[in-house]
Here is the input.
Amino acid sequence: MKYQGKIEQWNDDKGFGFVQPNGGGERLFVHIKAFKKRNRRPQNGDLIVYQGARDKQGRGQAVDISFASDHKRQATKQPGQARTIGTITVTIGCLFIAVAIVLGRLPLWFIPLYLVLSLVAFIAYGRDKAKAKNNQWRTPESTLHLFALLGGWPGAFMAQNKFRHKSKKGSFLFGYWFCVLVNLAAVAWLCGSEGQIWLSKLNAL
Here is the structure.
């Protein structure tokens, strides 16, 4: 667990001091070597983010330390980068499907299919977010993934960013992007010779 506190009694010559946790608690030993990355030397009064640990003698010490300002910048930078990459990927996927429809490799009914599934996925995310706030019975993650797998992944991506729901959970995002890739791989197969034969038979029904 990460904690935040203020550096006290910093001895710059020896490279150590102490941190007083915000809100009170045990004061921990701080060594300059415990900082992950730093562009300057610590000073008294600096706010830091850290994890608590014990040395061999059982004394409390701060480890995995970063300046609070750097930690905040990194925390906001990473989600922004992830959203940008995700937006580019979703846009490319949608353009791929649109071009395939224009070229006649996919039937026109793919348009309402993806629109409806995206709307269903968007609503499902919104309802699950509301349920999470009210401590109600949640929508299974497998159900949300199923919507993405069937073609609702554009709407699911929009919902993740709109509602800030499931947008930071690594295991869920891995499953989501796996479903996106599987769906696009299936679309690519349909655009091939074997897929065209299968679509012809389907349209003949």
Observations:
- The chain has a mean pLDDT of 89.
- The first helix runs from residue 68 to 102.
- The two ends are 59 Å apart (CA to CA).
- Residues 48 and 67 are 4 Å apart (CA to CA).
